[in-house]
Amino acid sequence: MSQKALYYRLSDDLDDAKLITGVHTRISENYDVMKDALDSVEEFEDCQVHEGPIHQHQEILETLKKHSSMAIQEDLTNWQKNDEHREVAKLLLVDQADYNTLHIFFDDSADEGEDCIVDVRDVITKEVLPYEKFINRYVIKVEPHRAILEPDYFIKMIEIAERSRDDEIDRLENGIPDEQAEEEEVEVQEDDAWAKLQVLPNDEYLQRTVLPVLYQGMKVVDRDRPEAPLEYLALYLLKHQNEIRLPTKPADDL
Known about the structure:
This protein is α/β, with parallel strands linked by helices.
């Protein structure tokens, strides 16, 4: 069945990645055994092996056109073997020159930094897209508490990604450098973000400020099961309070 597939990522080189459709069972959880087996054609008699990013990208697009859905298993073994480094993480191939297709990857571990769980690559140039280039455009970092509390959360996030991609296309067509557009956007955001925060309803205010860190703290409590969970959570919040990012308060209000 072509709707199920898995990736083998043997290195951070896209030419070493293999997309195998028709199977969801990995050859072996032993990385060395798995790597050797990939050279054996017999292992994939009932499957299709797709090599090269362009071929893999086209296979995914064609499958989605036919069936509307596809389940792809990432190469967790290789990611863990490489210290959970971003450049061998869950692979998202995007064609930045394709103005008619927008791939959006949702993941609650799409954090900024080298441990980001999503590896976004340009399918043509094979370049690694920087975080600021793909976040809220090709990748959405899911806030689980909002996904639970807001019935239309994912619709909102899709709209944000679509607007970001539309703005990018407009800049490309008008020859405006990304750096200039980003500076202008930051100036506008800093001017009115604080005022908007003050008039948010109570639930939205909490969702934008406290709940993201609170949710992460609750996950840690659930994992570690401390003897005094409330004290443990309080200490966690104090330790990570700098992760609550508030907009800059205008000088007139200081």
